[in-house]
Amino acid sequence: MLDRNFYDTLSRLRLRMSHKSSMNMSGNRKSMQKGLSVEFSDFREYMPGDDLRRMDWNVYARLDKLYIREYMEEKEAVVSVLIDTSASMDYGVRSKAELAGDLAAVVSYLALCNMDRLVLYDMKDMGRGMAVSGGKTGFSKVLRWLEKRSFSGEVDMLEAAGRMQCHGPGVTVIISDFLHPGMLDEKAADYERLLKYLHYRRQRPVVLHTMASEELHVTLEGALNLIDAENQSRLRLTVDARSIDNYERELRRLIERMKKGCGAGRGVYVLCDAGRDRKQLMFQDLRVIYDI
């Protein structure tokens, strides 16, 4: 996990939202409702029963009409974090599972610092999402929850997203390596269906694509037996310069496809290298998800 100084610096930022909040609890996000915050919204004509303290007497002096000042009401937003806990995430000298925990912790801390409502989901157990609110005091609960995650077996990402509880617009953060057949196959188009579903549920998708350094920069060579971490199927192949070039080309195609799909839904895609320095990753690579 990251140290206290890191989180002190992180507290100056907040997650970028593409929707105004429609929740009923108070918070730091601008709501679609009018209220009594400090940020002015608009004027409207006085109606019987309006609070006279909101009357704009300067406008009355100029126009000889009564007008009320309206303000944006600040409401709580919802940030949902979905973590892929399949076996393929437990790979790498600096594992994707470790990175997933750090990414989830960072997103959770930002949400809680800004009084958003946070919901954490283990994609293998979507029926037991953990809701956290109340500001930074809830962060220790997040860390305890993350420490209990185990990375094993398989995950159906599309099915998992369909079981997420959505109450109004918000941000959905998906942390995964996306190494699932339907997500990788353009013909199956599960990735595109996932993004369309989130758009339908008025969610801003933030895709944090976690990859091990060994997957991004292949150094293996020779005749190898590859074993699928999730279903234990085996593949024997010979790794040479040509096969590495083919792999890297397909990987670039996958990344561009994921970026394009995410951008089309007003979302954000970030490739996260598990071997990269954590501060550089969190403060440079992830800048696109913050309001600064």
Determine the N-to-C terminus distance.
Answer: 23 Å
**Tally of structural domains:** 2
Biggest beta sheet summary: 6 strands, mixed
**Total beta strands:** 12
Can you give the mean pLDDT?
A: 84
At CATH level 3, the topology of the largest domain is: Rossmann fold
Low-confidence stretches: 19-27, 29-38
Into which percent range does the helicity of residues fall? 25-40%
CATH class of the largest domain: Alpha Beta
Radius of gyration: 23 Å
Biggest sheet: strand arrangement: 6-5-4-7-8-11
Structural class: alpha/beta
Strand content: 25-35%
Under the CATH scheme, the architecture of the largest domain is 3-Layer(aba) Sandwich
Q: What pattern of helices and strands is seen along the backbone?
A: HEEHEEHEEHHEHHEHEEHEHE
Task: Outline the structure in words.
This protein is of the alpha/beta class and 292 residues long. It folds into 2 domains: 26-75, no CATH class; 78-291, Rossmann fold. The chain is 33% helix and 28% strand. It has 10 helices and 12 strands. It has helices at residues 4-10, 57-63, 96-113, 139-147, 157-162, 181-184, 190-200, 213-216, 241-264, 278-283; strands at 14-15, 26-45, 67-75, 78-83, 117-122, 130-132, 170-176, 203-211, 222-227, 234-239, 268-273, 290-291. The strands form 4 sheets. Strands 6-5-4-7-8-11 form a 6-stranded mixed beta sheet, sandwiched between helices. A two-stranded antiparallel ribbon has the order 1-12. The chain has a two-stranded antiparallel sheet with strand order 2-3. The longest helix is centred in the C-terminal third of the chain and has 24 residues, at 241-264. It is elongated, with a radius of gyration of 23 Å. The relative contact order is 0.15.
